[in-house]
Amino acid sequence: MKKKHDYEKLIIKYLCETVPLQKHKVLWRFVSNLKDYGSCTAPNKGVITISVDSKQQEMIDTIIHEYAHAIDFDRNGCGKEHHSEEWGKCYAEVYRAYLDLIHKNKEERKRNHGR
Ligand SMILES: [Zn+2]
Fold first, then answer.
1. Domain architecture of the chain: domains with CATH
2. First CA to last CA distance, the chain
3. How far apart are the CA of 69 and the centre of ligand 1, in A?
4. What is the pTM of this model?
5. Judging by beta carbons within 10 Å of its beta carbon (0-12, 13-18, 19+), is residue 67 exposed, middle or buried?
6. How far is the CA of 89 from the centre of ligand 1 (A)?
7. 104 CA distance to ligand 1 centroid (A)?
8. What is the mean pLDDT of residues 21-33?
9. Non-local CB neighbours of 22 within 8 Å, separated by 6+ positions
10. Greater pLDDT, 1 or 110
11. Band of pLDDT at residue 2, cut at 50, 70 and 90
12. How far is CA 30 from the centre of its chain?
């Protein structure tokens, strides 16, 4: 049986391995009935909450966005601005890792079909 949010969890695992946190740990929560798509909260941006009521692509976008906050905090500490230039750099890095994963999956599917 296919478990709930397997794909999203796979993306999280890949992102955490490819762009790892050095000083902190993050706990991921999948929650329903959130007002928002998700959040990355104190203390130390240690809890990332993702709304399960969103569409899959929205969940993935939120995962990337919130993980960039965790990376930003891990590297730069608590800045004044929420979406600072530093955060943007972290976001770009996390997004690239995500694109790499998509690309790898595509290549693999192509290879498997070729046989
Ligand atoms: Zn944000």
1. 6-108 (3.30.2010.10)
2. 26
3. 7
4. 0.90
5. buried
6. 13
7. 27
8. 93
9. 74, 75
10. 110
11. low
12. 12
